[in-house]
Each structure stands twice: as structure tokens, then as C-alpha cells.
Amino acid sequence: MSSDRKLGFDTLQIHAGARPDPATGARQVPIYQTTAYVFQDADHAARLFNLEEVGYIYSRLTNPTVQALAERVAALEGGAGAVCCSSGHAAQIMALFPLMGPGRNIVASTRLYGGTITQFSQTIRRFGWSAKFVDFDDLAALEAAVDEDTRAIFCETIANPGGVITDLDAVAAVADRVGLPLIVDNTTATPWLCRPIDHGATLVVHSATKYLTGNGTVTGGVIVDSGKFDWSASGKFPSLSEPESAYHGLVFHKALGPMAYTFHSIAVGLRDLGMTMNPQGAHYTLMGIETLSLRMARHVENARRIAEWLEADPRVDYVTYAGLPSSRWHDRVARICPKGAGALFTFAVKGGYDACVKLVDALELFSHVANLGDTRSLVIHSASTTHRQLSPEQQEAAGAAPNVVRLSIGIEDADDLIADLDQALAKATA
Ligand SMILES: Cc1ncc(COP(=O)(O)O)c(C=O)c1O
């Protein structure tokens, strides 16, 4: 818009990153199903390869459909730039890549998606990276875990599976004090419930597979950079603050300022790791994001009603939803996620492991799948599935103990979901 008016979330989720197609006027962002782009001439090609001019070269690096999505998510998160990736897990590796090197570590929350705990505790070791896991409610322990080789602090806004809300303001204050970037996985909150950059995050990562696309059709990820971190201050981030030999000695931070991290992630990260999002996937996610706020409002309202109903049920031991006044983390809702505590939580079934397994099998409307953030309501027994690779202590710390079931509440009629839980609980606890 020509005026300086700041556009609202509901407008940005439809318009940010998109403009009528310059070639055809197409109103919806076209799916640019192309691998390469014709250069104007040899000089133009050379300028693009030298990063002297921004433009399209090859779709492993950038693609107009994928770029529209990156700009949209950056706008919704309040970031300077964003990069789309082939999955949420790819986004996590890509987010760490410019920061890390052999011997470097990250300090991560114990409350994370089980796949992330496995990625960080095992797979990244093959790169010579490592992770230390700490309860992020213990800020002294978090700060004490940081050492000379630490290069980032990592947590989730609303932690999967327990629905525990992280005190991002407090964690960001620690990150600030120790001069490290804070990376926040905002998958389960989405920017509609929380914008981690407003709370001090440096980078935000997403599994676009979940609420952003919203209907279980796409695997994708996004990294958003706040553009606020000083990569040159400590000498700890040479990929961004020292000359890059593959770009004729370009110093990303000096040359590109707040866009340094984003450009590095494209020009080096996507170029060499190749964890690229495809244009079809980006198209579906763009479609999904157009209704993000409408869906999230319903997800949250349904989750609140169902959590309240479960908490009052004698067949249930406890419910972890932070939106319940009984939750240890309830006081964080107003500050971190004022529109609601998300739609993901666990509850403990009386009867333990066996009752949980029976419940999952007895549910009819809830689908038993390893996913979350779908329009459909989903259920999983984390201890025997997503968090199966973890030790009993890790499962307990992550909120995935054997006696709890995780729900991802969809946007169906809440009464129907409650009726389904009621009949399944009757079978599970008979
Ligand atoms: C919170 C969270 N982050 C990241 C991921 C990984 O995303 P993807 O499955 O798209 O790789 C998941 C997947 O379940 C998740 O729940």
C-alpha cells in the first residue's frame, strides 16, 4: 500500500509476498514449476552468480512461488527475511548450519518434539556438533550450560507434546546476556498465537507441515531471521562475519546487514545442502496460510473446551493444557500466547500404558497418526511412537510419559469430539 499504514495479520496472511503475476496478471501466486531461469545475457548471469544482483538462477536456490511463501511467513513473524526448506527438520539443520562447526554445541530445552531430541542428541553428532538438554524453566541451569563452544539456544514456544509454554522473554534475556542467538520453533503456536521475535528470538523455525499448511498435505519448513543479531560482535560466527571464499571473499554480515543470515542460508545453505522446498508444496502452504487466523481461533477454542471436559472427567488423571487455570504454566498464556494456549496437549488416562493404547484404538473421529496441526483431530500415544527412541527419563522430561496420550485438536464440532473421547474412554477404562 502507498500509505505507511501497518497491515493487520488477517491482511498479511492473504497478501504478503504475493502480487499479480507480472507476466500474466494471474491473481493467485502461480506454481512456477521450473528448474531454471533464462539469463538476459552473460553479464546478467555473472552478476547473479556473484550476488551483485538478486534474481532467479536455479530452483534449488530460489523459486518465485517458494519466495512468495518465504516473504509471507517473514511478514507474519515480523522478521527481516525467511528461507523455505523441504521439511521442519531440514529447517532446523539449515538454521544451525551457518552458526555451527565441529566441536560446537547448542543448549536445547528438554521439552521438544521427540524427533528433534533425536536429531539433536544423535544425528548432529555426525557433523561434530552436539546438544546439551536443560529444563528451560531453570534459567540458572540454562545459563550454566552455556560454554565457550555454545553457538545457539533452542526451544519451542508451545512444546510438543505437553503443550508447555516456554517463557520466551526470560530465555531471550539469558541468550542476550551470553551473546548467543535464540532459535525458537514456533510450529505449534504459529505467528497468530505468538511472534517469538517480539519476545527476543533471533531466529524462528517452523514445520510448515503443521498449522501453516493446516490440512496434512505438505511436508515443509521455514526459517525466519529477525535481522537483529550482531553476527560480527563476538567472532563466534565466522560464516557470517568473515570472508566467504566461495563468493570471492564476500563478508555476508558486512555486505548484507540484516539480510546476511537469509542470503547465507540461500547462497550457501540451499546451494550446498539442497534442502529446498518445492513450488507445489509452497503453493499448498500459501493456500493454507490465507486462513491461518480463522483456523487457529477455532483450534484454540475447541482445545480449551475439550481440555476442560477432560479435566473434569474421573477417568482422567490430569491434563497438561496451559490454557487451564490448574496448569503450572497458565500464567504465561497472557504474556506469551494471549490469544490462547494452542491446540496441542496431553492427558493421562487412569490405567496407564494399556489404557492409552486401548483409547487410541477406540477413537473414531480422532485419527491415529504421527502428525499435528491438521483440520482433523489427531491422537497419538507419544511414548510408543514419536518419543519411542527416547529413554524413559527423556520421555518423562519431554512430557511423553507412558501414561499420557497426545491430542491435536482440529476444527470439527467440539461436541462431536467430546462424544468420541467419551465413548473411547469408556472402552479404555472398562
Ligand atoms: C514442533 C515440531 N517441530 C518440528 C517438527 C519436524 O517437522 P517436519 O516433520 O516437517 O520435518 C515437528 C514434527 O512433528 C514438530 O512437531
Automatic annotation (TrEMBL):
Q: Sorted alphabetically, which SUPFAM superfamilies does this protein's record hold?
A: PLP-dependent transferases
Q: Which domain of life is it from?
A: Bacteria
Give the transmembrane region(s).
none
Name a single GO cellular component: cytoplasm
Residues bearing the modification N6-(pyridoxal phosphate)lysine: K210
Keyword set, alphabetical order = Pyridoxal phosphate, Transferase
Cofactors required: pyridoxal 5'-phosphate
Q: Which GO terms describe its biological process?
A: cysteine biosynthetic process from serine; L-homocysteine biosynthetic process; transsulfuration
GO molecular function terms listed in the Swiss-Prot or TrEMBL record: cysteine synthase activity; O-acetylhomoserine aminocarboxypropyltransferase activity; pyridoxal phosphate binding
Keyword Transferase belongs to the record:
yes
- Gene3D superfamilies the UniProt entry points to: Aspartate Aminotransferase, domain 1, Type I PLP-dependent aspartate aminotransferase-like (Major domain)
Q: Which family does it belong to?
A: Belongs to the trans-sulfuration enzymes family.
- What is the name attached to this protein's record? O-acetylhomoserine sulfhydrylase
Q: Which organism is it from?
A: Cereibacter azotoformans
